[in-house]
Structure formats: C-alpha cells, structure tokens
Design brief:
Blueprint: H1 2-20, E1 25-27, E2 47-49, E3 52-55, H2 66-74, E4 79-81, H3 93-116, H4 118-124, H5 130-149, H6 158-178, H7 180-214, H8 218-234, H9 238-241
Antiparallel strand pairs: 1-4, 2-3
C-alpha cells in the first residue's frame, strides 16, 4: 500500500506540474473578446526569411490587438503565452484539480501504511515491540546499577560499564527510537510526546553514565544510572497501556 501511495503521489505531482505550466497559455481558438488586450509573456509566431534568421510575429510585452490576433491565426499559431491568468481559458485546470486529489489520496495511503501496516506487524512480534524494548533497556540499566554498586573498588570495572552501555545504545535504545510509528498510532501525538520526554531525559542520564565511566567517576556513574532507572520506571507502562 505504501508503494501504491508513493506512485500516486509522484504521478499526481508530475501531472500537477505539467498542467500548471499551461496556466498562462491562451488558445487562439478562444473568442476574440477573451484575447484582446492581453499582454504577451513571450514572443509568438515566426516570420521566415530566406537570408536571415526567422523573426517573431509578436514581441514579448506586446498587447494583443485585432490585427495581431488575425496575423497570428493566419500563421497557424495555436497558443500564445500571456501574463494574465484566466481560469476560463486554462485548459489544464481539470488535470490540475485531479492532481490535487491524487496528492491527497496518495498522502493518505502513505500515512495509513506507516501507521497501520508495518507498525502493527511489529506489535505481533514481542521481541520487536516497544514495550519489550523498553523492558530490555530497564533491565540493562538495573543490571548496570547492580554491577556498579557491587564494585569492591571505586573506578574498577568502568571499562565494562562503558562497553555494556555502548551495546545498549546501539541495540535496544536505537530500536526503541525507530518504533515511533507504533507509539504514535497507539498513544497519539500528545501521549508519544509525554513518553519521549521522559525517555529522552533517561537517555541523557545513560549517556552521562557512559561519560562518567570513561572518567572513572564511580559515584557519578551510579547517580546517573539511578536517575535513568527512575525516569524509565515513570513511563515504563505507558508504551503498552496507551494512557
């Protein structure tokens, strides 16, 4: 469905651009009263000369008079580009309106696919669901807290802490951020914003814990992990409850 929506979008966009390009073309088959007095936006017609380059019958910025109109028609000119827009003489207006409808339909198909297609399939796989990912993040943070608390010497084992945090950032945390369509569909934009506000704060604390571990700052790393744990627990059930 997403592919179909994208095809409709691109096709409608191309059709809209092409039809919009005809908005300032005035067909000389129109009644004289709709053409007289219009100002040309480009030269029109050609006067062929044997020994010289052809010259335009009408120059840019020239107003269409009855004589000029007759000369252009006699030369076989079918359309001229003018500066004034007229919905009545725009032959491509229906194609343009159809393109607008196509853009709306294509956009709806793409949005529906993003919110109702792959996200719901992901929900059926517990290992990929947002609540499962959040639980894995929480359990890893709790494990790190326990590891830091059990260290016999402050600063010892900080390299292992950095390694585990790096793994967490590259796996479960990255996957949780990518689960945005599922969370938006489940919680709505307002609920998603509330959840991600707490999650972003927890993420910052986890990143600070990594930096503290890199500096062998045992107490700071422990404090950051404590704060991250509290923030994750604050919104831990919201990913699945839809509050």
């Amino acid at each position: 469905m997403k592919t179909l929506g994208q095809l409709v979008l691109w096709g409608s966009l191309a059709g809209g651009v092409l039809s919009a390009a005809t908005a300032y073309l005035a067909p000389l088959s129109a009644p004289d009263e709709k053409l007289l007095g219009l100002t040309l936006a480009a030269p029109a017609g050609r006067i062929e000369k044997p020994d010289a380059a052809p010259l335009p019958i009408a120059r840019k910025d020239q107003q269409i008079s009855a004589e000029l109109l007759s000369e252009l028609r006699s030369a076989g000119v079918r359309n001229v580009r003018v500066k004034q827009f007229g919905i009545g003489r725009w032959r491509g207006k229906w194609f343009f309106l159809l393109s607008l409808v196509g853009l709306a339909v294509g956009g709806t198909l793409v949005r529906f696919s993003n919110m109702s297609g792959r996200p719901r399939q992901g929900e059926k796989t517990s290992a990929d669901s947002p609540e499962h990912l959040l639980q894995k993040i929480q359990s890893t943070v709790e494990h790190l807290r326990s590891t830091v608390a059990d260290m016999s010497q402050p600063g010892a084992g900080m390299e292992q802490i950095r390694h585990e945090i790096t793994q967490l950032q590259q796996t479960h945390m990255a996957a949780f951020v990518e689960a945005r369509p599922v969370l938006v569909a489940r919680l709505g934009l307002a609920g998603y914003a509330r959840l991600m506000d707490s999650y972003a704060a927890a993420e910052r604390q986890i990143n600070r814990a990594w930096s503290a571990a890199a500096d062998n700052a045992h107490e700071e790393a422990a404090a950051c992990l404590d704060e991250a744990s509290a923030l994750l627990q604050e919104r831990g059930s919201e990913a699945s409850s839809g509050r």
